[in-house]
Amino acid sequence: MTQQSLSTRAWAEMTLLGVIWGASFLSIKLALTEVPVMTLVAHRVVWACLLLWGYVAWKGLPLPREPRIWGAFLVMGALNNVLPFILMAWGQQFIETGLTSIFNAGTAVFGVLVAAMIFRDERLTLRRGIGVCIAFFGVAVAIGLDSFSEFDIRSLAQLAVIAGTVSYAFAAAWARVHLADLPPQLAAAGMLTGASLIMLPLAWVIDGAPQWPQQPVTFAAIGYFAILGTAMAYLLYYRVLAMAGSGNAMLVTLLIPPVAILLGALILGERLAAEAFAGFALLALGLLILDGRVLQRMRKSPSP
Predict the structure, then answer these.
(1) Structure confidence by residue, pLDDT tens digits, 231-251
(2) What is the rounded CA–CA span in Å between residue 75 and residue 73?
(3) Contact by Cβ (8 Å): 226, 43
(4) Which domain holds residue 102?
(5) What is the tally of helices (H) and strands (E) in the chain?
(6) Nearest Cα residue to 42 out of 244, 200, 181
């Protein structure tokens, strides 16, 4: 399944998903000008949760009754929504949207490492190990090698975003162990329920009683990342996964940064340093080596 060729429709939906998620970084940046981090994340998970439960009801999917599954939803919501959303939104206050999206592309790399530590059938091969090393070097280059000697709030923000990708990796492993037997749309709705149960009291305690934004652009940004960037994106991702397979779906991570970088430049006037682009190129190379198909095609190509 992971090596299947992509249809035109699969490519179109993968590209659309990359655009939706790429634009999410801009919407979060815009909302952060008025909404504090915890309240922002609460908005994101609660509205998306309600929409996905509406989808589950429309599809007539049976609800799980075992307490074990609802406990797994709570953990999954913490690992896949609460921690990464908070860490990335906080970090994005101090770094560019495009740079945040580049670090986010490292999710697949950490996913490979976490899976190798936990699952016997996911052990690192030589090729995958080389891909991981190149991708990690790309992340280090994107951070800026001087950041390792001069630690400041920008460096901490970059590390926070990377920590969010590590949380995503552990969430994927948790889902494989505890939620694999559920329809993915139901698992997503349950996960966001767990995240909402955590974020609503957390936002209240840290940010105080919720207040509605005053600026129309903030309302639009919240609507975008909650409805399109979270609820609809999850549903579209599962369609892509079914059509293209997990190996092809991983390539979406390479489509997101160009969109985020372009929107950040056009709308926010952001300019990334040269090392950020060099780091992304190395990260993309590492992900392609992990995927393996480029090397296979090179071996199959006839010699001149």
Answers:
(1) 999 998 888 877 766 666 677
(2) 6
(3) yes
(4) 8-60+73-294
(5) 14, 0
(6) 200
User: Do residues 113 and 129 make contact, with C-beta atoms less than 8 angstroms apart?
Assistant: no
pLDDT, one tens digit per residue, over 19-69 is: 999 999 999 999 999 999 999 999 999 999 999 999 999 999 999 889 999
User: Could you tell me if residue 152 is left (phi over 0), alpha (psi between -120 and 50 degrees) or otherwise beta?
Assistant: beta
CA separation (Å) from 52 to 82, 246, 303? 17, 22, 52
Q: Which two tokens stand for residue 193?
A: 């329920």
Name the residue among 106, 115, 118 with its Cα closest to residue 165: 106
The pLDDT of 152-181, averaged and rounded, is 90
Q: Is position 303 within any domain?
A: no
Looking at the 3D structure of the chain, how many domains does it have? Answer: 1
If DSSP codes are grouped into helix, strand and coil, which group holds residue 35? coil
Q: Give a yes or no: residue 68 inside a domain.
A: no
Q: Would you say residue 1 has pLDDT above 90?
A: no
Position of tokens 């609820």?
Answer: 231
Q: Is residue 67 part of a domain?
A: no
